[in-house]
Amino acid sequence: MDALLADLTKFQGDFGEGGIIRFIAALLIAVAFGLALSATYRFYYRANEPQDGSISRSMPVMAPAITMIFWLIQFSLPLSLGLLGALSFVRFRTPVKRAEDIGFILILIAGSLACAVGHFLNALVLLGMVLLYSLLRNNIGAIAMEDRATAILTINSEKQINADSIQKKLKEQCQASLVSQSTKDGIGSFVFNLQSLAKSKADAVLKVVSELDSDARVDLFFPENQLGA
Fold it and tell me: Which of 49, 59, 83, 117 could in theory staple to 38 by disulfide, Cβ–Cβ 3.0 to 4.6 A?
């Protein structure tokens, strides 16, 4: 019995030179960090903007995995070099389309590294800064910048509408520039770029076109979700 306890004590002391208890605690804290960052990710984009749900769902899984990798390599230089060579073959098979998503992945890696080396307060401060920025982005930033973005407006009308008159009306709401116009089978088609269009004025733009032709087919959209939350 004494020999078994001695072996167990030696195993615990040698395990990562930090003890198995500390190792399990680091993994649990990493899972908590991943869950918190996942919730922050969803809050950052909120419900009215499309988001990649797989990134959010994978954070609680990736955090302990990354923590364990850094835990293993921090005490062994040969192992760290070997893992570095092995991980160099890892590539993103699906492109990450938004820079914000890459930013959240880097934050996840940084927080997991902090958990691996026992700097839990650093991970908490990092998470708090991201949450604070998300609050400012979704509230104060929305008021100050009015969620302005470049939009594309397309109009198809059977009436003889002059492009200059449409552009003049649109300039009351935002900066509008004519991209193209054409006429086919008696239907006039117009494409406008609306620069610095506020989200709150989208309905006003549609109303302007409706005043010129209530039966016109109108499409207003923001390429690549530029409008934001």
Answer: 59
Q: Strand, coil or helix: what is 142? A: helix
Q: Which of 14, 23, 21 is nearest to 68 (CA)?
A: 23
- In this structure, what DSSP letter does residue 137 have? H
Within the chain, all domains assigned CATH 3.30.70.260 are found at 147-225
Q: Does domain 147-225 have CATH number 1.10.443.10?
A: no
Residues near 120 by beta carbon (within 8 Å), at least 6 away in sequence = 29, 114
The angle, 0 to 180 degrees and rounded to 10, between the axes of the packed helices 20-45 and 53-73 is 150
